[in-house]
Amino acid sequence: MVTVRPFKGLRPRKELAARVAAPPYDVLSSEEAREMAKNNPYSFLHVNKPEIDLEPGIDLYDPRVYRKGAENLKRLIQEGVMVQDQEPRFYVYQQVMGRHRQVGLVACASVEEYEAGLIKKHEHTRPEKEDDRVRHIDHLNAQVGPVFLTYRAREEIDRLMEGIVAQEPEYDFTGEDGVRHTLWVVSHPELIARIQQAFCRVEALYVADGHHRSAAAMRVKRKRQAENPHHTGEEEYNYFLVVIFPHNQMQILDYNRVVRDLKGLKPTEFFEKLREKFLMEEQPPGQVYKPNKPHTFGMYVSGKWYKLTARRGTFDERDPVQRLDVSILQENILRPILGIQDPRKDKRIDFVGGIRGMQELQRRVDCGDWAVAFALYPTAIGDLMAIADAGKVMPPKSTWFEPKLKSGLVVHLLD
Fold first, then answer.
1. DSSP secondary structure string, 336-396?
2. Any idea what the Cα angle at residue 402 is, between residues 398 and 404, rounded to 5°?
């Protein structure tokens, strides 16, 4: 049984929604965010990337950054740019990216259910990033970036969502990313109750993206509970901001890799080692190889593309983690041949989201800064759920979800 809770969302005025809405805090550098927001005082980047309003080069974890974020959120409220709903609401958020469409519920999820494992995770978190999100929530007294959740699709929920999106939306705009963003406000008590009842029959929710935000929400809840002698469990800090999409509407793109050098190997020596674990096929001149099924890889090196196919016995097909293509690449090439022991920390590897296309991989190698690029087939949502169900952890940078959720469309205040 899963709990979803309506809340009094803090939202932009209708005519300002497109100017307020901003990319998530972790997909832009400070320089990119500063450039994007420089002529837009309403941009939510002033709240979720507040270093852009301080001196360039400031430490992102400097206390002044968090204070500036709180100050900027307060300014948006005082100027009437953002207004809080007077009664608890649900919100329905639709994104259309090319031919892809996904419709999710904006709600609050239970921190207690996260702690109990009803909201399942599949990644380790890094302490410094958790600490950052805890400080951000505490200073703003708000959760401003929704956690991206999924669940095994249910027809009754689909019907409820489709009924809502047939109505007139509150916001409807196309962002700088080319994605159409549409949001509906659900205010009718009977419909709110029906949505809650339908989610009661969902067995579990899964964190798709936002592991640090959800872990931070848990830490803030524990801290505030310890400080509150009159804690009841109904306080807003017991819940965290989420957008929940059915699994069959999730779009995962490839998450590719580039490596700086061949660890002293000549290309012929590198190829000889590869052939021990992979079938290797050189592609015709000028032809890119983009993997079209699991356990195949594109490789670009020395101006040529190759198709790699993992040989049988090079991975455990029964293990949900070991059979992932990111694991096959790591355990058969990156670690033993190229010496990438910890991809989280090694500066010789970088990760390129599939949204940037195969041309970005080729460009990076051709410019001379990187020696080899690997293109992967996207991780399946079923694999993510199977790993979470088994209580296991995916390798880093296994999934790249598109489209990205906008920040600033609905904010959850903690009092």
1. TTT--S-TTT-TTEEEEEGGG-HHHHHHHHHTTS-SEEEEEPPPPHHHHHHHHHTT--PPT
2. 110
Segment 295-320 shows an average pLDDT of 96
The token pair at 188 is 């009718």
Q: For the chain, list the domains and their CATH numbers.
A: 4-250+402-413 (no CATH), 255-377 (3.30.1760)
Distance CA 393, CA 404 (A): 22
**pLDDT value, residue 300:** 98
CB 181 within 8 A of CB 406: yes
Q: Quote the CA–CA distance of 270 and 371 in Å, as a whole number.
A: 12
Res. 69: pLDDT tops 90: yes
Neighbours of 366 (CB within 10 A): 13
Q: Dihedral through CA 174, CA 179, CA 180, CA 181, nearest 10?
A: -100
State how far the alpha carbon of 140 is from the alpha carbons of 50, 133, 212, in Å: 11, 11, 17
- CA-nearest of 171, 175, 173 to 183 is 171
Within a 10 A sphere around the Cβ of 110, how many other Cβ atoms?
Answer: 21
Tell me the pLDDT of the chain averaged across its residues: 96
DSSP code of residue 88: -
Assessment of whether the complete model's pTM goes beyond 0.85: yes
Each as own residue / partner, the long-range contacts of residues 25-30 (CB below 8 Å, 24 or more positions apart, any chain) are 25/49, 25/145, 25/407, 27/404, 30/56, 30/60
Give the CA distances from residue 371 to residues 286, 362, 398, 410, in Å, rounded to whole numbers and listed in that order: 18, 10, 21, 43
Query: Please, which residues have CB within 8 angstroms of residue 303's CB and are 6 or more apart in sequence?
Result: 366
State how far the Cα of 370 lies from the Cα of 303, in Å rounded to an integer: 12
Q: What is the pLDDT of residues 156-167, one digit of tens each?
A: 999 999 999 999
pLDDT band at 126 (very low <50, low <70, confident <90, very high): confident
Rounded distance between C-alpha atoms, residue 208 and residue 152, angstroms? 12
- Which stretch of 122-126, 214-218, 295-299 has the lowest confidence by average pLDDT? 122-126
Q: What are phi and psi of 158, to 5 degrees?
A: -55, -45
> In this model, does residue 177 exceed pLDDT 90?
no
Q: What is the mean pLDDT of residues 340-359?
A: 92
- 157: helix, coil or strand? helix
Residue 360 CA to residue 365 CA, distance in Å, equals 9
Rounded to whole angstroms, the Cα distance separating 248 from 357 reads: 23
